[in-house]
Amino acid sequence: MRGKARRLKQAKEEAQMEVEQYRREREQEFQSKQQAAMGSQGNLSAEVEQATRRQVQGMQSSQQRNRERVLAQLLGMVCEVRPQVHPNYRVTV
């Protein structure tokens, strides 16, 4: 009876080790396939990042070029007051 329990425990441990080894092999296979697939996407990612940087730099340079003009335009609108009577205003006597 004791030998049988010990043999069952040993068989269970061996099966667990086999399962663990199989899992590691499959994980390595998955990692290598993922690395191969991501290698081509890595280039796309770099290209997208570079294009984004170029766009941001273009926006920043545009902002620097147009900053003074826009500020002058805004200040002109705010500071230049033209008093007018509203068209809906009615004079009551």
TrEMBL record:
<dbReference type="GO" id="GO:0030672">
    <property type="term" value="C:synaptic vesicle membrane"/>
</dbReference>
<feature type="region of interest" description="Disordered">
    <location>
        <begin position="1"/>
        <end position="66"/>
    </location>
</feature>
<keyword id="KW-0813">Transport</keyword>
<comment type="similarity">
    <text>Belongs to the V-ATPase G subunit family.</text>
</comment>
<feature type="compositionally biased region" description="Basic and acidic residues">
    <location>
        <begin position="10"/>
        <end position="30"/>
    </location>
</feature>
<protein>
    <recommendedName>
        <fullName>V-type proton ATPase subunit G</fullName>
    </recommendedName>
</protein>
<dbReference type="GO" id="GO:0097401">
    <property type="term" value="P:synaptic vesicle lumen acidification"/>
</dbReference>
<comment type="function">
    <text>Subunit of the V1 complex of vacuolar(H+)-ATPase (V-ATPase), a multisubunit enzyme composed of a peripheral complex (V1) that hydrolyzes ATP and a membrane integral complex (V0) that translocates protons. V-ATPase is responsible for acidifying and maintaining the pH of intracellular compartments and in some cell types, is targeted to the plasma membrane, where it is responsible for acidifying the extracellular environment.</text>
</comment>
<dbReference type="Pfam" id="PF03179">
    <property type="entry name" value="V-ATPase_G"/>
</dbReference>
<dbReference type="InterPro" id="IPR005124">
    <property type="entry name" value="V-ATPase_G"/>
</dbReference>
<dbReference type="GO" id="GO:0016887">
    <property type="term" value="F:ATP hydrolysis activity"/>
</dbReference>
<keyword id="KW-0472">Membrane</keyword>
<comment type="subunit">
    <text>V-ATPase is a heteromultimeric enzyme made up of two complexes: the ATP-hydrolytic V1 complex and the proton translocation V0 complex. The V1 complex consists of three catalytic AB heterodimers that form a heterohexamer, three peripheral stalks each consisting of EG heterodimers, one central rotor including subunits D and F, and the regulatory subunits C and H. The proton translocation complex V0 consists of the proton transport subunit a, a ring of proteolipid subunits c9c'', rotary subunit d, subunits e and f, and the accessory subunits ATP6AP1/Ac45 and ATP6AP2/PRR.</text>
</comment>
<feature type="compositionally biased region" description="Polar residues">
    <location>
        <begin position="53"/>
        <end position="64"/>
    </location>
</feature>
<dbReference type="GO" id="GO:0000221">
    <property type="term" value="C:vacuolar proton-transporting V-type ATPase, V1 domain"/>
</dbReference>
<feature type="compositionally biased region" description="Polar residues">
    <location>
        <begin position="31"/>
        <end position="44"/>
    </location>
</feature>
<keyword id="KW-0406">Ion transport</keyword>
<keyword id="KW-0375">Hydrogen ion transport</keyword>
<dbReference type="GO" id="GO:0046961">
    <property type="term" value="F:proton-transporting ATPase activity, rotational mechanism"/>
</dbReference>
